[in-house]
Amino acid sequence: MILRDATSRDAAGVAALERDLFGVDAWPLPVVVGELAGEDREAVVAVEGDTLLGYACTARGGEVVDLLRIAVHPARRREGLASRLLAAVRDRAAEAGAERMLLEVSAANDGARAFYAREGFAEIGRRPRYYKDGTDAAVMQLRLGGRE
Ligand SMILES: CC(C)(COP(=O)(O)OP(=O)(O)OC[C@H]1O[C@@H](n2cnc3c(N)ncnc32)[C@H](O)[C@@H]1OP(=O)(O)O)[C@@H](O)C(=O)NCCC(=O)NCCS
Fold first, then answer.
1. Rounded distance, CA 81 to CA 54, Å?
2. Taking every annotated instance into account, which residue ranges of this chain make up the domain N-acetyltransferase (predicted)?
3. Ligand 1 neighbourhood includes 112 CB (under 6 angstroms)
């Protein structure tokens, strides 16, 4: 397994995982292409040969970096892949001078919320009915550069 920067050749694999994991909130292929290639975007993939195991995408805006997505193939969870993907995009954000990382996660997504909490994110707010299925989002924040 290696981690590397995403390229346009990863878009189809990312879009397929999006469909499987995020249902009505999945990014369609043209959105994935834009997210992997955008100027203020960072995207890292975990791959084994030609197989996509997971990915993380961020968007930079001033001192804040938004974690737009992090996902791991269901067959490869609890192996530390998401931790490694998050470390990769977190290090890049800190090197680029960002002071905090923010994310929205479904309030119903206990697994992801446990993962983020273990990685040091703290819940700082809620966005009611943020997702298309009507569930709320929890807004979580991680201070970068050891300033928690
Ligand atoms: C959330 C997600 C990215 C975690 O990926 P992962 O590769 O399994 O996570 P890791 O193996 O790096 O987990 C590191 C630690 O986080 C915590 N953790 C991860 N998943 C967890 C879960 N489902 N329940 C409770 N704790 C969890 C554990 O402490 C874990 O360490 P441990 O396995 O030694 O107990 C993965 O479950 C996923 O892709 N979910 C679907 C997509 C999603 O909801 N993404 C987030 C919103 S964009």
1. 7
2. 1-145
3. yes
CA 141 to chain centre: 13
Mean pLDDT per segment of 10 residues, for the chain of length 148 residues?
A: 96 97 93 93 96 97 96 98 98 94 97 98 97 94 77
- CB neighbour list of residue 45: distance below 8 Å, 6 or more residues apart: 3, 4, 5, 6, 10, 13, 14, 52, 53, 54, 55
Domains of the chain: 2-143 (3.40.630.30)
Q: How far is the CA of 77 from the centre of ligand 1 (A)?
A: 7
- Which of 44, 115, 123, 127 to mutate for ligand 1's pocket (most ligand atoms within 8 Å of CB)? 115
Q: Find the 24 Cα to ligand 1 centroid distance in Å.
A: 21
